[in-house]
Write a structure and sequence with these properties.
Structural class: mainly alpha
Largest sheet: none
Number of helices: 7
Number of domains: 2
Distance between the termini: 44 Å
Strand content: under 5%
Number of strands: 0
Length: about 150
């Protein structure tokens, strides 16, 4: 078992014990509600319109209203996630590594650019080196586009 996978697994188990929810319920709440909420809030901030969160929470409300058994719903969603992660074995990636890639690295890789575009002034002020590198890449793209280079 990989260390990042184990750390996240233990954290979700701890939250499960703390809240009385099952591990599967906590997992679904974190990865299907909390993480998307953060991403969509950042997208709404970038767009300067609260559109994404309204649509997202409307969908959640409809789903919860129609669900007969929330524990079973969480189990079904969790089991679908497990099947998705197990499917990575077809390309030689085990469940642990697939979990780390999809559930840790992909969200971090999504969060950082969204954070930058949602709060560019704060980002530039507190992380000038990274912001400077991003600006240099943008300038090179513009220069390449203006020169007609691919």
């Amino acid at each position: 078992m990989s260390v990042p996978f184990y750390i996240v697994y233990q954290a979700l188990e701890w939250v499960s014990g703390l809240t009385g929810l099952t591990y599967e319920e906590v997992n679904v709440i974190v990865y299907y509600i909390l993480v998307p909420t953060v991403f969509l809030a950042l997208i709404d901030k970038i767009l300067r319109k609260p559109v994404c969160l309204v649509v997202f929470y409307s969908g959640i409300a409809i789903t919860l209203f129609q669900a007969k058994d929330l524990t079973r719903l969480a189990d079904d969603i969790f089991n679908g996630s497990v099947l998705f992660l197990l499917a990575f074995s077809h390309i030689g990636i085990g469940y642990d590594l697939a979990s780390v890639l999809v559930c840790i690295l992909l969200p971090i890789g999504t969060f950082l650019p969204l954070l930058y575009f949602a709060f560019p002034v704060i980002f530039r002020r507190h992380l000038p080196t990274i912001a400077h590198l991003i600006e240099r890449v943008k300038m090179k793209r513009v220069a390449r586009r203006d020169s007609g280079a691919p």
